[in-house]
Amino acid sequence: MSTAEALRFLVDAQLPKRLADFLAFHTGCDCLHTLDLPAANQTQDGSITRLSMDEKRVVITKDADFVNSFLLHGQPYKLLLVSTGNISTNELLEVFRAFLPQLTKLFGNHSYLELSRTLLVTHR
Length: 124
What we know:
Blueprint: H1 3-6, E1 8-11, H2 17-27, E2 30-33, H3 45-55, E3 58-61, H4 64-73, E4 78-82, H5 89-106, E5 112-115, E6 120-123
């Protein structure tokens, strides 16, 4: 099984559902968006973190609260902080398209990555 197939993602509410669909299509990964959860975009951070830990999902978010939780408690399971600022969905998908091969590879050895418009940074 390749790294991409082994990854499971959970895309947070500030990011578009199209990102989850894009990741599922282009990686073959199991990918959820908060809209897929019972409380949809009202899902609390704690519930997202628990689901991430229970199902070994990478949380993809713009929310710095997840960074604090990860640094202090080692949760969620793995984290991708999207720090692109406000960009269109199409621009966001192009950023992901450009960095997707590196992203899937780096999550094999790292638990916290940050994606900007031009860089993919490993933390910790």
